[in-house]
Hints:
22% helix, Homing Intron 3 (I-Ppo) Encoded Endonuclease, Chain A
Amino acid sequence: MLVTVCAECRHVHVGRVCECGCDDWSKLVGVLDSTPPPSREPGPVTDAEAEEEWVPIAGYEGLYSVSSAGRVRSKITTEHRRKGVLKPLLDRYGYQSVKLWRQGVCTRAKIHILVAAAFIGPRPPGLVLNHLDGTKTRNVPSTLEYVTRARNNQHASEIGLARAPRGEDHGRAKITAATAAIIRESPESHRVLGQRYGVSRGHVYRIKKGLAWA
């Protein structure tokens, strides 16, 4: 909570409007205190929220629950967060996750894995979790399934999510990852390295800059 002093009347007040009527923010100077804002009463539950089914998260019973709509909520207020729905984080692979706290230890958990465990069941050994529609941020039971890794890769290729082959997996690769590492560390010129390993000087440049074979 921002507590300031009006430069004109010198009244102490809370927020950006002075109690004496001075509403010019340029007159407000000095932060006297900074405390957590007061808790707010939860708003009315919408029809969509009322249809959600909430299930306790295994290992965090009494602390967190996950819903059939792909939301996660904290059931208690702690020093780390308030009671209520958690804001998801996005990792570098495009998956949503949340931070779960228990006994002072924080664990980052992917939301689609929490949803599947709660509404589909534990993941069978050797299987991975697949998004049927390819949308990594749509974490609802109807779009999730357990499949083999081979089937997961095949599905990604079918819907256009699979990355094109790179490095030694590429059928036209002229060098190996070990050779690329040698090129990257070599102090010799691009021309000499290109002639020795049968690649262009431009390709040697890209390897050294981490733009290829990284």
